[in-house]
Amino acid sequence: MDAPPPVKTSAQTRPRSLSSKLDVERLRRDFPALAQMVNGRPLAYLDNAATSQKPLRVLDALRNYYEHDNANVHRGLHELSRRATDAYEGARARVATWIGASSPAEVIWTRGTTESINLVAASWGSANLKEGDEILVSDMEHHSNLVPWQLIAARTGAKLRFLELDDEGRLILDALPEILDGGRVRIAALSHVSNALGTINPIAEISKLLHEAGVLFLVDGAQGAAHHGVNVRELGVDFYACSGHKMCGPTGIGVLWGRRELLEGMPPYQGGGEMIDRVERDYSTWAALPHKFEAGTPNIAGTVGLHAAVDYLDEIGADAILAHEQALVAYALDRLREVPRVRLFGPSDPGERAGVVSFTVPEAHPHDVSTILDSEGIAIRAGHHCAQLVMRRFGVPATARASFYFYNTRDEVDRLVQGLETVRSVFGD
Ligand code: C6P
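A: This is the predicted complex of the input protein with C6P.
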């Protein structure tokens, strides 16, 4: 048999440049939180993979909603309820267009990526998985795209299989054909972008291989949609999960996109108001999509805020955002390499990563690095980043992580590198 063709590891099919064309100073004025002093220094917010800051456009939309339109949705026949419902469903239609869904009915509101993945694992998994089946994940996954699969595997008798990482933190995709050859994998769940390494995975290429083998594909887009936009049809995936708060929107609102025919066939995830059609004493029937998956009063204001965030991001442009982040990553990698004995994680080619730079220095634990940087007004994250398998792969308990968005600057990267000098002087010999 001929060897399978090598899987392309090009990060993206879209042409990209590593120079930024954004007017960052103008954009920064949209974010009140960025203009503050922290510990006597201007805030350098480099923790965007955890959550992004919110522009005035989003804050105004939230305030306007609560001041004028606040009511429950789909329940009342009064003016405010109609307005709230229009805003709620209007946001769904906007997100559907933004991610390239065929219909708003394919967009399910959730609390965030974590809930979106739990929904699919519990609902699709309970209806479709059985002993002997396999679920393909990877060592790159955030716990949100690992633990839900462990839970459903334990309930159904299915088994987890893992794609491993190379030394630069890329998926070893050469192993994929052999894993799929076994014929047992039913679904694969992989991240679009690693929150711990920054690696952008070649989702469209992986999708093709999975579908040729009849395997469904869920993508954890928590770090994807926010940083380079997403078109689920172009990616050719089956489910896509993302969080509003990482893309300038409010916390507590997220999206699960799924192919309609798959969502139609899945049982409800939670029971309650709004998700039913008819209720009898001993059984109920379900509402049509998307409401079947939206039990209880939803986060209406969250959808309003997310709508405003999507409008805002669209005006900046997904390609421009990614180009800016990659230019900053290229600069940060160069500058960090000047720091003696620094260890950098993730692909060395900035074109293969989004705006995340994980590193360690031998003088100090990442928590101490973060504390010192905080004393200089620089916010980063330190720890295992809810990705303990990544830490294990690279033999470290934790890393320090700077993560950028379109409003970050080279000056902030310089301050980060300078801050590491302070770390070395405090903790070094
Ligand atoms: N990562 C970080 O600092 P939620 O919490 O549901 O919005 O997103 C979960 C999640 C899932 N997948 C990936 C790849 C993620 O990065 C995250 C959130 C944050 O890296 C908080 S742990």
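The chain is about 40% helix and 15% strand. Residues 1-16 have pLDDT under 50 and may be disordered.
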